[in-house]
Amino acid sequence: FLAMFALFCIALAEGGLWAYLERIGKHGGLDLVLIGKALALANLMGAIGALATSVLSTRYGRVAPISFGLIAFVCGAFLMAQQGTSFYVLGMALTQFCWGFTLPYIMLISVECDTSGRYFILLSAFKFGGFAVGPAFVSLFLQPDSYLAVIWVCSAFLLLCMALVTPLSIRLDRRDSQSNKSAAAVAGSS
Fold this sequence. Notes:
The chain is 83% helix and 0% strand. It has helices spanning 2-27, 32-56, 63-80, 85-113, 123-139, 148-189. The longest helix is centred in the C-terminal third of the chain and has 42 residues, at 148-189. It is elongated. The termini are far apart.
């Protein structure tokens, strides 16, 4: 269930951030038309992130891509908190790329850790549950005239996600490495 809780955490961060993206831009003085275009670009970047995951698969293991995705997600969130259109658009695009990129890895780990095959069906509940809880949870920390709490709370959940999923990723990467060595040894002796 650690991997599923990690999935809940990244979904909570994404849901909490997504709910306030427009308000963050508006608070930064950005035009609503620009914010709408930035949201469209962000959705496209999420799709590109998901495609990047399918291209990379586990070629570089799980730890490196997940760590990259979660750390870059945090960086993108903090970029959005800076003043200026470029920071906002770049930050939004980066966070959504990382959401699309990292989510499939965490879902993969959840399935790989479910050796009984009975719990994978809960993936959607954990994902949508986190996404639904995110805005309400983040709202508990909002301050008047500032959306920085959104960034901090979401970042905390992304780092918690990383703490939960990294040991599992290491274990699965080692298992794959051992399997590859065994397969190479068998092929070499033939």
